[in-house]
Write a structure and sequence with these properties.
Layout lengths: L18 H4 L6 E5 L4 E6 L4 E7 L9 E9 L2 E8 L4 E10 L5 E10 L7 H5 L2 E9 L4 H4 L8 E2 L7
Antiparallel strand pairs: 1-2, 1-8, 2-3, 3-4, 4-5, 5-6, 6-7, 7-8, 8-9
């Protein structure tokens, strides 16, 4: 199959996804992760997400901060700006439906790097891991200290 290209730029023209397709599954509502944190999001008909992340007491991010992102079908992605901590965290993954409706997400956290001359030092400020958010609290959400953070590659640091 040959793709159409723009006469001006020769960049392939990809058909837009309809808003109905983007919102086939709707993540709007309140979600809880295994650490006791809350994610309250609203997904607009165009697939844009806005909301609030609330850190749990004793969590690395105890504050409340805004989130922005996108939903497209079962794909979900959003970013939180933990400005006080000089940190951004982005989550991306899938909305899983059924009896155990959840957001299965990988996260990447970046912290401000004060060392710019060594490429290896810059990467020390990028951590990643996994979180699961559910529509209802679970018993582990009530005792978040009992649940590991699931970091990947930086086991000594919680996200």
């Amino acid at each position: 199959m040959q793709r159409a290209t723009s006469a001006v730029s020769r960049i392939p023209v990809i058909p837009a996804v309809s808003n109905a397709d983007k919102m086939a599954l709707n993540p709007t509502g309140l979600w809880y992760d295994e650490h006791g944190c809350e994610l309250e999001i609203f997904a607009a008909p165009d697939g844009c997400i806005t909301g609030v992340f609330r850190g749990a007491r004793g969590h690395a991010f105890p504050d409340e901060c805004g989130v922005v992102g996108f939903v497209a079908g079962d794909l979900v992605s959003f970013v939180a700006d933990f400005a006080r901590l000089h940190s951004l965290t982005a989550w991306a993954g899938h909305l899983v439906t059924g009896d155990d409706e959840r957001l299965d997400l990988l996260w990447h956290r970046t912290v401000e790097s004060r060392v710019q001359d060594d490429a290896q030092d810059v990467w020390k400020g990028v951590w990643n891991g996994a979180d699961v958010f559910r529509r209802r609290r679970t018993s582990s959400d009530q005792n978040p200290a009992s649940v590991p953070s699931h970091p990947i590659g930086h086991e000594h640091r919680a996200h």
